[in-house]
Amino acid sequence: MRIAVVVLACVSLFAADDDWPAFRGPDNNGVARGDVPPEFSLTKNLAWKVHIAGRGHSSPVIWGDKIFLTTAVPTGGGDEYAPNLRKEHRFVVMCLDRNTGKVLWERAAKTATPPDGHQVPYGSYASNIPVTDGKRLYAFWESRGIFVYDLDGKLEWQKDFPQMHKRGEFGEGTPAMVDGDTLYLKFDQEQDSHLIALDKNTGKELWRVERAEPSSWSPPLMVTYNGKKQLIVAGTRVRSYDPATGKVIWECAGLGLNSIPALVSANGAVYAMTGFQNPNMMAIRIDRQGDLTGTDAVVWSTNRGTPYNPSPVLKDDILYFINDSAMLSVFKASTGEAYYKQTRLPGVYSLKSSPVAVNGKLYIATEQGDVVVVKMGEKFEVLATNSMGEDMFIATPAVAGNSMYLRGKNTLYCIRQAK
Q1: Are strands 398-400 and 382-387 parallel, antiparallel or unpaired?
Q2: CATH code, domain with 108
Q3: 318 vs 327: CA distance, rounded Å
Q4: CB–CB of 28/356 below 8 Å?
Q5: CB atoms < 10 A from the CB of 135, how many?
Q6: Closest by alpha carbon to 282, among 32, 183, 269?
Q7: Is the pTM of this model over 0.85?
């Protein structure tokens, strides 16, 4: 049986080309450092595939030769991928050899009956993405707590949290973030929203700040600018916190409800976007203090074509984002100049997964089981459309070295150039 838990993070330790330690990769911008073939299928450039028990939409993370994922397995049997809402589940962390797909270890972090539901088919009880700093794996399950393992599967510490109250049946799935010796966890919900900092070695709470925010799912982002760190967090407002104390440095209103896409940052600006009610995208200068709403700190913005779920990619001053209807927009990040806007991928697609950039190519995994590869740059060009059969991709791919790892409904695929 294959299983796993999940947590998302920003990593301060050095990540090699063969590492993908967090949701948006080694640099938290959706960009990989290796290369993978643009064309593949169930019979071409498929190095291995392995069955994953249960239901989980968390993306894999990778350190060295190890892949980590999470899943939630119903204890009552039956269709292991079926929603099984409010049934008893085992919440499992799983480690595989990334070269062969062999399961190295798996740990049941907790067995519990969740009182909350999640959207079907897009939700799961294992949607939080794990994070590793190369020493430990941090598996954040929100209402089910956080479980911290060494890379050989030994539980070092754990911490319980109260039941959350997310909007409707959207479910949980906010990533955590690790930086230095601190673990940052965001609990945006319909009441008692807050942000906490923990000592990553012991779980001791270092500080806690209340957040006047409804439910959101976007992960925190650590940015260093002019020698100083800022912990930037999106909700309906984007806020920058002093990572040592939790004190607000600046904030800016302008995003809609249900913040999900990850923040990205470069050259003194952060890019935040939402795509639900009152969609918007803002490029905000981070060298300011106070309330930046309506000021020239907002360098540019757009409310067209912004994603509800997929996170953007930022590479070489070009910002790529795609909405849930598979329409891709590409802008010059520093100025807001549009290279192209809302250009539809070939075929009828819908998306929850986020694109990843690999050696000048954008890989976009769809709900319909295809992975579309688009050339990066100022002009739209489709390089390949790769079918993976009847599968469905909600989780975002991970890339390490010469391999890409795709998580489908019950299968983890390794894509690698055939020798």
Answers
A1: unpaired
A2: 2.130.10.10
A3: 16
A4: no
A5: 13
A6: 269
A7: yes
